[in-house]
Amino acid sequence: MKRKTAKEILAASFQELASGKSIDKITIQEIVDNCGYSPATFYRYFKDKYDLIAWEHTRAVAEIVDQTGAEDYVWKQTLYDGARLYHENKDYLANLLQHTSGHDSFMRYMTEIDCAALEKYILSVNGNQKLTHEEMLCVKMYCHGLVGLACEWIMGQIDTTLEEIAEVYEQSIPEPLKKYLL
Fold it and tell me: What does the DSSP 8-state code read for residue 3?
């Protein structure tokens, strides 16, 4: 049985609090009180709650992307699982987008995480050959589009299903990236 790390427990505590409170109103003291840790323990792992948010999102995305390429786990499944992650955490993510220090800053961070994960995956597929300038521009454009669409969907600005979002994600893969992702 895998035990949760202190970081995972702190993240779970934060998410539990975020289910009933605006993220900008949650304090470090509340996070640690909720899980029985001290502020010193929190600061051993994170510089602030935004660092915790970034760590958790990075970890969640990496868990999905790291499966890609395994037997019967193709890029389409990665896109579906990414959309499912956003769907399952819709209220939490909406809270993040509405109540952090800037909607754009969280979107920008999500995009950076997704770009890094996609680049890492492509490098694993192409034998660690550096991506061309055009390919890197396509990675950035693709991730900006994915995150932008996901955020509109999370915020209820787009009425569609999880399956339709995943399908659009797949149909939107830029031509220079298709050889790696399809």
Answer: P
d(CA 134, CA 33) in angstroms, rounded, equals 49
State the DSSP code for 129: P
Structure tokens of 126?
């192409």
Give SS3 for 38: coil
Question: What's the CATH number where 20 sits?
Answer: 1.10.10
12 and 64 in a single domain? The answer is no
Binned at pLDDT 50, 70 and 90, residue 101 comes out as low
Q: Tell me the per-residue pLDDT of 103-145, one tens digit each, with 9 for 90 and over.
A: 567 788 889 889 998 999 999 989 999 999 999 999 999 999 9
Cα 173 to Cα 66: distance, rounded to the nearest angstrom: 19
Domain count of the chain? Answer: 2
DSSP state letter for 66: T
2 CB-near residues (< 8 Å, 6+ apart): none
160 with 125, same domain?
yes
The answer to whether residue 180 scores a pLDDT higher than 70 is: yes
Owner of token pair 């050959």: 129
Do residues 53 and 100 touch, judged by C-beta distance below 8 A?
yes
For the chain, state the CA radius of gyration: 17
